[in-house]
Amino acid sequence: MKVTIKDVEYIAKLARLEYSDEEKKTFTKQFNTILEYIDKLNELNTDDIEPLSHVIELSNVVREDEVKQSLPVEEVLKNAPSKTDTFFKVPKVIGGT
Amino acid sequence: MTTVAEGIQYEPVIGLEVHAQMLTESKAFCACSTQFGRKANHNVCPVCLGMPGVLPVLNKKLVEFIVLMGLATNCSITSRSIFARKNYFYPDLPKGYQISQYEEPICRNGFVEIDLPDGNRKKIGITRIHMEEDAGKSIHDQDEDTLIDINRCGVPLIEIVSEPDIRSAREAYLYLSKIKQIVTYLGICDGNMEEGSLRCDANVSVRKTGDEQFGTKTEVKNLNSFRYVEKALEYEIHRQIDLLESADHVVQETLLWDADNGIVVPMRSKEEAHDYRYFPDPDLVPVVVDEPWIAGIRERLPELPTERRDRFIEEYELPRYDADVLTVTRDLADYYEAALQPVKDGKEKSYKAVSNWVMGDVLRVANERAIEMDQFPISPEYIGELVTLIEDGTISGKIAKDVFEIMLEEQKSPAVIIQEKGMKQVSDTSEIEPVVQEILGKYPDQVAEYRGGKTKVLGFFVGQVMRATKGKANPQIVNDLIKKSLDAE
Lengths: 97, 489
What we know:
heterodimer; A: mainly alpha; Histone, subunit A; B: alpha+beta; Arc Repressor Mutant, subunit A; 3 domains; 9-stranded mixed β-sheet; elongated
């Protein structure tokens, strides 16, 4: 499967990112190189291999249900380009999900 | 174009997705508080904010809660389950993905049973129950811009997905009520739909009765109260039937229930253009629930609503209606059983009498004052004592109502109140007889009427004697004494 410029535009849209045509061309090439590389793996026979979701052999890393101090609200809002009271402010989102 | 013959029967096919907010102290993947109603962005840390380099760590209690729910709904528990990232872009989701479970949910293939109005019991399959985190809150109407509060981000949820086994809006309501009953019995969710602790989306389609294949389905969102669930589904079922009847077709789409206008409206296509690109979350290692852990959780499983209801019918010989009402919430059922303590060796008559008090006066006052049973001013044992005091003739049922009212105000046992206020019923004939004679002497005309055959005036005399004794005379004895006097001469 070859990645086209349309795929790149679609992925950029899902991430709400905008790129120049030049950049889109570069990404198309790069995406294809990555996928070709990954495709190599398809040459392996994996019939009897359990799918691997994590490379480290760990399970049940959990914490007890205890509340700890949250971040001071000034810190929380420190990087926000826009805020009001203690809310973050973002451009109007039409409708809701 | 096909024409639709008259009298075709349609059958709705409904599946529900229910989100329940878990009653943990801290969030699913960080130690921020889950407390509701805090000032905006005060329960927030770098994990909630999706800062680079942070590491989420799973709350053990969330696993225990969902396994409890899985066991209560007859699910098989997946021994090794993993978390996935569900990617979508929205400002109240700072990470750009929601941590959820996709391919290996922790609970699968369960069922709950609902009691249909006709008395039959029906199984509704549960496809899966998985863990996930809540998103933040967007406020669109307080400013020209959208305001974002991240407090709710990361609050633990479980999503319960039913099989498409539901066949009417009523059944959907009963199923949802059952889920609410179970989560509240388990103490893992407060079950409050209006506050969003329990949320419901529905997949709805209709087909001709007898058809094997499902019709085209729509997804109805925003069913945020028990009242709306039934109403919205009725509406959608009829909308789809009308489309099919007019030889039109149902479009697969996502609809929002508009409670103000009582209709469903399509969500804009842009809003549903989701491509979630699920993949295993590399930050979170698998959850392995082994047999000893499950066994430990199973021990904490309380008696569930349906079992308890059945036991109430069996053990206390209550009518089904009483058993249904008394087991609606665990607190109420506990209250009833605590109230039975003083009458434990009584007969089914006493069990029913206690039931009448709890379903009647107790629930009435709880509703009037809008309080939960654990805040009810009268301790349940006193209700049981009150019933025994009526049954052994210490007080009449009428006086008992007065004692009940006093108990609401003063935290004293009924025996103490009766003692202090001198409310004890008088059953001693030598005390009542003079009053009877006095009343009969006072109303010679009515005495004559009675003797002339108008025996209905007996009630009048009883009333007068009861009034003269301030309700304390044993009405049965009063009745007997008056009758004896009038019939004697």
